[in-house]
Amino acid sequence: MIDVQNLKNNLSETIENLSRRGFDFNEDYWLKIEEKRKKLQIETEQLQEIQNNLAREIGKLQKDKKDFSKAKEEASKFSDDLKTKKNKLDKVQAELKDFLLSIPNLIDAKVPEGNSELDNTIVEEIGKKPEFSFDIKDHQELGLLGNGMDFDGASKISKSRFVVFKDSLALLNRALINFMLDVHTKEHMYKEIYVPLIVNSDSLIGTGQLPKFKEDQFKIDDNEQDLYLIPTAEVPVTNYHRNEILDSKELPITYVCHTPCFRSEAGSYGLDTKGIIRQHQFEKVELVSFVDPENSDEQLEVLTSHAENILKKLKLPFRKVILCSQDIGFSSSLTYDLEVWLPSQNKYREISSCSNFKDFQSRRMKIRIKKDKKNILCHTLNGSGLAVGRTMAAILENYQNEDGTVSIPEVLKPYMNNLKIL
RNA sequence: GGAGAGGUGGCUGAGUGGUUGAAAGCGCUCCCCUGCUAAGGGAGUAUGUGGUAAUCCUGCAUCGAGGGUUCGAAUCCCUCCCUCUCCGCCA
Fold first, then answer.
1. CA at A8, C1' at B72: how many angstroms apart?
2. Residue A13: partners with Cβ closer than 8 Å, 6 or more residues away
3. Residue A208 included in any domain
4. Strand B positions with any atom < 7 Å from protein CB?
5. Is A7 inside any structural domain?
6. Other CB atoms closer than 10 Å to residue A35's CB: what's the count?
């Protein structure tokens, strides 16, 4: 949620900033409802004060065994009035909250102007793209060839956009997860954490998936339970500290968490229908940090470098981009995407998204820091380190051999029973 | 899933309708005293939000969550959530 105080004080700047990401801030509505809220709130609280005073008076009179019927009569008069006012206020406040919750984060000054991924700023390209002297295959062909991927089997037991991994690909999946967790815990000193994969709506509101992106979530359809499958570990891990006041001495808090992620991918049925690039379920290793607001800019660089490090160790060619104003996510203020080279597509494809949310999420979640005896909102960040399915696809394609086999990246061999080839 | 007990401030823990936002203790902060790794004395110490530019002042809200009764609810009633104990089931 954006800072309401700031919204009031710097209305035109805020509107301008939001318009850069294509968000049309309804100024008339805002001014009207805010004025309404203010008026109602003042009136309601004044009535409440009168009533509280009367109630206190009655208490005293009764204690002194004096007649309090007159005060009681007066208080009764207020009671109804107060109730209707309060109801009105509740409604307006709920409406206002809805409005505020659907406003995206303000974007950082570094975010480039643009309306699609074509306008993202390319920061750097790292690693050498492989050159092939033969006709290359895409990762799906390679997976099917080795009999390690089964899409038909997956759709039989579930539905489309799921996959079954077998043998060496099942092993590769597990190897990648362990490799990534090891690097982040041992070299980057993240605390490993394991969390529920089913979360309540408060958690999804906290990180920004709700109320606006309900159709992207898998909801548990069981006795109208208020539960959803997680779209990313970001949700449970960030919400782990919801409603808490963190000790500034503990910061930065950095977690690494492996989970499956579930996305309904509503409205993307034409996209990436081949292979494992876009599935309803995929594995991801996620990095999440909680930092002092002063350090979040720096922390984004650090966190992104940790994700990059995995790609470097795997010797996968990639590039780093800054998402432009209309490609950046709802809750983020600044996002670096890491895009891995996919030879079959002759394109770089997103494999990690590292974002600084500043105080947008922590305001929703009330995550604060005790600093100089005051409570301030902390800053939250996260990034994939990395998306495992896409990493697997990238390895298959970049490490493929002419005979359809796939070499195994050096760093993974210890995790692959020292196999050299898939 | 069934039966019972319970959810109060950073922690422990009082409080069953009326100045209780909440005793007391611990912890923490500041000050005083004390020539020493101790003890004592004093003061302060929840969060959110409104009026405000405001850390001053002041209003309102918050005792698991949401409703209800009442002039008035931490206290009474209803629903839900969570924790603990026992039983059932189970990886």
1. 37
2. none
3. yes
4. 10, 18-19, 47-48, 50-51, 54, 59-61, 67, 71-72
5. no
6. 10
Query: What letter does residue A199 receive in the DSSP assignment?
Result: E
Q: ipTM score of the complex?
A: 0.83
Which residues have Cβ atoms closer than 7 angstroms to strand B?
A: A 4-5, 38, 41-42, 45-46, 48-49, 51-56, 58-60, 62-63, 72, 75-76, 78-79, 90, 245, 366, 368, 375
Is residue A65 domain-shared with residue A205, that is, in the same domain? Answer: no
d(Cα A164, Cα A162) in Å, to the nearest integer?
Answer: 7
**Per-residue DSSP letter, A213:** T
Q: How far is the CA of A187 from the C1' of B91 (A)?
A: 34
- Tokens 């206020």: give the residue: A89
Q: Tell me which residue range forms the domain holding A59.
A: 26-101
pLDDT at position A151: 95
> Cβ(A52)–Cβ(A79) under 8 Å?
no
pTM: 0.92
10-residue averages of pLDDT along chain A (422 residues): 90 94 93 91 91 88 79 79 85 89 94 95 96 95 93 93 95 97 97 92 91 89 81 94 82 94 85 91 96 93 98 98 96 97 96 96 88 82 96 97 95 92 82
Point out the nucleotide closest to A373 (alpha carbon to C1′). B29
Residue A47 shares a structural domain with residue A168:
no
Sheet holding A374-377, edge to edge: A245-247, A368-371, A374-377
A197 and A235 Cβ atoms separated by less than 8 Å: no
What pLDDT is recorded for position A223? 66
3-state secondary structure of A257: strand
Predicted local distance difference test score (pLDDT) of residue A28: 92
Residue A351 covered by a domain: yes
Question: What is the count of structural domains for chain A?
Answer: 2
Q: Is residue A16 part of a domain?
A: no
